[in-house]
Design goal:
Shape: elongated
Order of helices and strands: EEEEEEE
Number of helices: 0
Helix content: under 10%
Distance between the termini: 64 Å
Amino acid sequence: MTRRAPMVFAETVLLWSDFRFNPQFDGSTSLRGGSVWREAHGSKFADVMIPRLRLSYQFSRELSLRWITELRARREFDASEALVSKTQTLTPDVLVSYYVRPGTVVYVGYGSFLDGSETADLRPARSSVFTNVSYLLQM
């Protein structure tokens, strides 16, 4: 006997805007949302809302800073559309780039993942710091 996966249908929405505050400072915002319904009886299965902010600042030709933060809010429902679970995650990321010369770049970054059921309850689940050196070998 084979089991058939439940049929679903979905809607998504995306809004975004880019900003240039001055020649050195720019940013962008976006809001992505979506819902998924069960096709059998039209009840909502889940919905998600994801606002995102990106800010960049160019201190000099060589040195720049980028900050990206995203909040993901997800809710799941049972067949009677009663709320079953609610999760939120926040991911703030920071990246510093230093261009030594063309083809040689040093990156230093920090990323974090906060998890919880409400925005006020978010707790760090994991964090990381990384470095990367990119070097163009010229022959």
